């Protein structure tokens, strides 16, 4: 039986919003759209379902509403229906509780009135005074008048129908009579009935005019009365919010009295400003939030902060006010235009910005038996599995690496920060933002050929340009270098280690990422987390990110520990959750970050920290008292029709767009990738095999030269082995373009074209660093040193 659909809500009695509803232990809490109207609480999966599909409805007249904790509450109607709900904050929960209680009281009252409607003498409503009684009498009198007018309209309507039918019959009879004695009698009857019809019509018109006049006159007065009631309701809601804050503060003060020392619970007593004013300490605590630490993540309680807090903290605690003022300055820095910054270069107005494409050909719907290919690949390295382009997306791994710059604005803002701790927040948000493009991207990028490059020149558009090069094929490694006019440099070397486990595919990025800022000389480094592709064989593919990242500032010793929570069927947390804490070199927490890697991130300044209750695993949790959270990053919406274009972002759509002047080794010139983008997959598969065979031939020739250079006596023996059919078949079977045999006897003497391998003295890591020359070669159009890899 389908669930009942709620009635259409009226504007004055409706409360709508998002809540988290407990579904089961497999899916946990799910976000649902709830609508409270006419004493009924209904929910939908999305707002778009309100017009056609209701997922459930509960009648509040017989329901019981119970509060579990700060954000959770339960609605039950005696066991038949029970909703376990969770709001996003304590204030939001209190608003829902208030709206539900008011709706329940109204529903109970309406039900009682409907039960008593059969009595001959209904009880008069109680009045609170003489004015209330007069108003009730006036309303009842007006309703009786309107009711009588409606009855008059009904009577006139019946008479019009009756007289109209009689007039129609008379006219019909008039057409069939003979001219003579009957003519006068029939004409008289028609005249009488027409007169009655006219009189009745005039009476109905007059009754309608009176009814409309009364409705207009009293409608204005009722609208004013309704507005007064609405204003009073808003004032009551604000009062309830204040009471909820005070109640929450009293509970925390009671719990914290046994945890915090008296000198630590009120830092204003030890300041040089003297004794604080009355109520300052309570107001300060009331404006803060409490976050659980990373040791044992739990639900966060959020209470909006009072804007006056900064002024109060400035008079009570000079240290906090100076840091808070620093935040305000940095925020104002972010809002300044680049033209007002004397250090930023002025754009060239004579050269218009290039208009880049916003669409690519739609993805063809080709059928492929996945299991027939993957069943022989379990346990193998992903780079050693021969894959058709059906599993790919028309981008190379170098282009996917360049997609990390989708949210380059975060690094632009970080370069302007005066505080290294706040700069750490922006760098941490940048590390999280690089995963936002992967949430729907289940296609495998093309493995780059050795020596393949990709340039992303956005100097005129965005103030940066980057270069990627495949510097090794065993293990497959790519180097990336990006530099911005805003004063930051990003470099990374990524090696992918992947394993196919039958049901899922794990991709473990090896190597490090480094970010350097020119103005402050801050040097940051971090590593990537593990990416897992689920439901490889059966079901819909979906991607998850899990693991931990430590972003380290090697100059100041600051550190940000980010935790990517893996998806769990039994977890009640928000999916794809990311939390983090920014600490200085002494381990003192200064900022708390929270959000999801596919939507947004927020950060909050830590004002106090203390040890709280033990967590679920016996670890003592740290309670962070913070200011109101601010949004630091939000994901850009996907372009229209992205589901038919491999779920590419706006930047990804432009990465494979043909450009003039790029190197002959650029990924845009790769033929199999271009054929796949155009939808010619059969030709792309054939071209992919040709490129792989060419790559293997070049590699064997390079190995022969390495053998001759190292040991001339072994050259003949090695050449005979390499030229034998057995050796050739072994190398060619089941390899990708970047594969080399694990049993290679001699090392490869390949040297990267634009990068060189160096030891970083700051981080102590060895990585490929850009050695220069690419952009100069592009300006001169001189690509003679580039190999013919395509």
Automatic annotation (TrEMBL):
SUPFAM superfamilies per record: Oxysterol-binding protein-like, PH domain-like
Record-level GO cellular component terms: cytosol; perinuclear endoplasmic reticulum; plasma membrane
Pfam families tied to this protein: Oxysterol_BP, PH
Residue ranges, annotated region (Disordered): 114-134, 261-289, 301-328, 658-746
UniProt xrefs under Gene3D superfamilies: 2.40.160.120, Pleckstrin-homology domain (PH domain)/Phosphotyrosine-binding domain (PTB)
Keywords of this entry: Coiled coil, Lipid transport, Lipid-binding, Membrane, Phosphoprotein, Transport
Single biological process term from Gene Ontology: lipid transport
Sections of the chain in a coiled coil: 226-253
Subcellular location: Membrane
Recorded topology in the membrane: Peripheral membrane protein
Molecular-function GO term, any one: sterol binding
Protein family per UniProt: Belongs to the OSBP family.
Name by which UniProt lists this protein: Oxysterol-binding protein
């Amino acid at each position: 039986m389908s669930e009942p659909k709620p009635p259409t809500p009226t504007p004055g009695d409706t409360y709508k919003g998002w809540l988290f509803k407990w579904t089961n232990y497999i899916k946990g809490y799910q976000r649902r759209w709830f609508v409270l109207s006419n004493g009924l609480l209904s929910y939908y999966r999305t707002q778009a379902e309100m017009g056609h599909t209701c997922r459930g409805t509960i009648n509040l007249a017989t329901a019981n509403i119970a509060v579990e904790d700060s954000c959770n509450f339960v609605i039950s109607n005696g066991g038949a229906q029970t909703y376990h709900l969770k709001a996003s904050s304590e204030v939001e929960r209190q608003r829902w509780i208030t709206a539900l209680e008011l709706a329940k009281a109204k529903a109970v009252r309406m039900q009682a009135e409907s039960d008593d409607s059969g009595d001959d003498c209904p009880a008069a409503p109680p009045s609170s005074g003489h004015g209330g009684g007069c108003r009730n009498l006036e309303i009842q009198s007006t309703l009786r008048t309107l009711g009588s007018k409606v009855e008059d309209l009904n009577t006139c309507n019946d008479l019009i129908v009756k007289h109209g039918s009689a007039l129609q019959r008379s006219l019909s009879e008039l057409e069939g009579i003979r001219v003579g004695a009957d003519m006068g009698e029939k004409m008289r009857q028609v005249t009488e009935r027409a007169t009655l019809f006219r009189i009745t019509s005039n009476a109905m018109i007059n009754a309608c005019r009176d009814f409309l006049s009364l409705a207009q006159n009293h409608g204005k007065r009722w609208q004013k009365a309704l507005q007064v009631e609405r204003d009073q309701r808003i004032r009551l809601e604000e009062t309830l919010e204040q009471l909820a804050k005070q109640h929450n503060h009293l509970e925390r003060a009671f719990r914290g009295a046994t945890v915090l020392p008296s000198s630590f619970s009120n830092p204003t007593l030890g300041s040089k400003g003297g004794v604080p004013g009355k109520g300052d300490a309570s107001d300060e605590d009331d404006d803060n939030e409490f976050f659980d630490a990373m040791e044992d993540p739990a639900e966060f309680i959020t209470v909006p902060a009072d804007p006056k807090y900064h002024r109060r903290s400035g008079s009570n605690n000079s240290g906090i006010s100076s840091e808070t003022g620093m935040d305000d300055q940095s925020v104002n820095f972010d809002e300044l235009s680049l033209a007002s910054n004397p250090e930023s270069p002025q754009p060239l107005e004579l050269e218009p910005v290039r208009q880049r494409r916003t669409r690519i050909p739609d993805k063809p719907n080709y059928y492929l038996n996945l299991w027939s290919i993957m069943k022989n690949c379990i346990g193998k390295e992903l780079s050693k599995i021969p894959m058709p382009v059906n599993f790919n997306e028309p981008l190379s791994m170098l282009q996917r690496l360049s997609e990390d710059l989708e949210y380059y604005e975060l690094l632009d803002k970080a370069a302007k920060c005066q505080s290294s701790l706040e700069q750490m927040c922006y760098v941490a948000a940048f590390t999280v933002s690089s995963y936002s493009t992967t949430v729907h991207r289940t296609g495998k990028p093309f493995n780059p050929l050795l020596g393949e490059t990709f340039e992303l020149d956005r100097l005129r558009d965005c103030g940066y340009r980057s270069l990627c090069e495949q510097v090794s094929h065993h293990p497959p490694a790519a180097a990336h270098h990006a530099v911005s006019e805003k004063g930051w440099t990003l470099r990374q070397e990524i090696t992918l280690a992947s394993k196919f486990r039958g049901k899922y595919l794990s991709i473990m990025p090896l190597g490090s990422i480094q970010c350097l800022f020119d103005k402050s000389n801050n040097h940051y480094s971090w590593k990537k987390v593990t990416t897992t592709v689920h439901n490889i064989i059966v079901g819909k593919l979906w991607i998850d990110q899990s693991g931990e990242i430590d972003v380290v500032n090697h100059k100041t010793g600051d550190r940000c520990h980010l935790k990517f929570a893996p998806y769990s069927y039994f977890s009640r947390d928000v999916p794809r959750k990311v939390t983090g804490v920014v600490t200085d070199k002494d381990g003192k927490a200064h900022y708390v970050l929270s959000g999801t890697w596919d939507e947004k991130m927020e950060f909050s300044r830590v004002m106090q920290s203390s040890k709280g209750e033990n967590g679920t695993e016996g670890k003592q949790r740290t309670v962070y008292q913070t200011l109101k959270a601010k949004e630091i990053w939000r994901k850009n919406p996907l372009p229209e029709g992205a589901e038919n274009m491999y779920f590419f972002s706006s930047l990804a759509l432009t990465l494979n767009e043909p450009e003039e002047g790029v190197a002959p080794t650029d990924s845009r010139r790769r033929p199999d990738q271009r054929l796949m983008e155009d939808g010619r997959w059969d030709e792309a598969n054939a071209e992919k095999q040709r490129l792989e065979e060419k790559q293997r031939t070049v590699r064997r020739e390079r190995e022969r030269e390495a053998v001759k250079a190292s040991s001339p006596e072994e050259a003949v023996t090695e050449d005979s082995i390499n030229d034998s059919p057995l050796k050739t078949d072994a190398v060619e079977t089941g390899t990708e373009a970047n594969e080399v045999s694990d049993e290679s006897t001699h090392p490869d003497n390949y040297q990267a074209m634009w990068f060189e391998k160096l030891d970083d003295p700051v981080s102590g890591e060895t990585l490929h660093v850009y050695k220069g020359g690419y952009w100069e070669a592009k300006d001169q159009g001189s690509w003679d040193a580039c190999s013919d890899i395509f």
